[in-house]
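Batch job 17 of 40 flagged for manual review because the log was empty.
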Amino acid sequence: MGLHRRVSEALILRQSLDFRNADDFKETFQEHVDDGVRQFILDFSDTEVLDSTGLGSIFSLYRAISPDDGKVAFADVSEPVQVVVQLTRTYKVFRQFPSVDAAREAFSG
């Protein structure tokens, strides 16, 4: 019996990814990692707050999957999140796409 491996997983983030819910985010992505997912698309379209704890949880995801050639991409980044991405130069680590579909297309190609 073969194992089915999903190519990518889009995670739609809430209005915030911060100290209040970063642990929930880690639990969610760990379940997907345990299921074999190695490509994640984070949809920031509705996210108004991203703090250092939230950013740290994204880097935890990246560290968990990068040894297996995993990827994390940002999609539809809201303006408040874009400010954080620019200030922290996170764009050097995580590719950004205008939409989840554009990220999926890039991952599949």
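Reviewer: the log was empty due to a logging misconfiguration, but the result itself is present. The chain is about 40% helix and 20% strand. Unflagging and moving on to job 18.
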